[in-house]
Amino acid sequence: MTVSDLHELIKNMKPELVHGRFFIASVGQHQLMVLANYLDYIEAVFREKEGMTLVFSEGPGDVVKPLSDYPISGPFALIMLTVNSDLFAVGFLAKITTALAAKGISVNAYSAYHHDHLLVPFERKEETMEILAALSKSSK
User: b/e per residue, 58-79, with b = 16+ CB within 10 A?
Assistant: First the structure.
């Protein structure tokens, strides 16, 4: 069952810090074939008119190396909000990004079918988790 009520979403978001360091890169569509051996490290792919945006983790095969000719940003920490949010819910990410912005934490957020995800500066991951826990607790 999906949740659409903002209060319930915040209260039950249960942020989970995903292990590893994550990066964002912009590549040409043809580069996806070259990366076929690294699919275990690719978290998300978005098509934009400027190219394909990849969210990926570093791994033992060093997926960063074949992307060295492309713009790469990071490292980021990936936080999955484990509440099963309704895709039509209003204000969930806005409430979270506003709380993080108030503390000067940048966030790149995206929604997938089951959960919402946050990419935050790697060095601020623990602080982010504390802010999210406080936000969730204040909504109870």
Answer: beeeebbeebeeeebebbbbbb
